[in-house]
Design a protein that fits this description.
Pfam families: Acyl-CoA_dh_M. Residues 1-67 form the Acyl-CoA oxidase/dehydrogenase middle domain. Keywords: Oxidoreductase. This is Acyl-CoA oxidase/dehydrogenase middle domain-containing protein. This protein is mainly beta. The chain has a single domain (2-84), classed as Butyryl-CoA Dehydrogenase, subunit A, domain 2. Helix content is 5%, strand content 46%. It contains one helix and six strands; from the N terminus they run ββββββα. The strands form two sheets. It has a three-stranded antiparallel beta sheet with strand order 1-5-4, with no helix packed on it. A three-stranded antiparallel beta sheet has the order 2-3-6. The chain is globular and about 40 Å long. It starts with a strand and ends in a 13-residue tail after the last helix. The model has no long low-confidence stretch (mean pLDDT 80).
């Protein structure tokens, strides 16, 4: 279950899926215990709201309200930050694996 907000997510209103890095573990350093999730944009509890900018509404706020994410949506459980910055095993986030 996810509750929170992600800000400045480019073109989320056009996407089929968004990436979310959420804290799923406690302890360790602030960079440990993070998991990267692939979230379908139609998931109940996810609201996408455009942010007015000089360039239009290309960026968005994502609001997660009691948004249930299935375990199979979690990728790189634990080292989510390494996945986000490309340090994870190449192809590890490929859903066909």
């Amino acid at each position: 279950m996810v509750n929170g907000q992600k800000t400045w997510c480019s073109n989320a209103h056009l996407a089929d899926h968004v990436l979310l890095i959420a804290r799923t573990g406690s302890g360790g350093t602030k960079h440990e215990g993070l998991t990267q999730f692939v979230v379908p944009t139609g998931t109940p509890g996810l609201q996408i709201q455009g942010i007015d900018t000089m360039g239009g509404r290309e960026v968005n706020d994502l609001y997660f309200t009691d948004c249930f994410l299935h375990d199979d949506r979690g990728r790189h459980r634990g080292p989510g930050l390494e996945a986000a910055d490309g340090r994870a095993e190449p192809g590890a986030d490929d859903p066909r694996r």
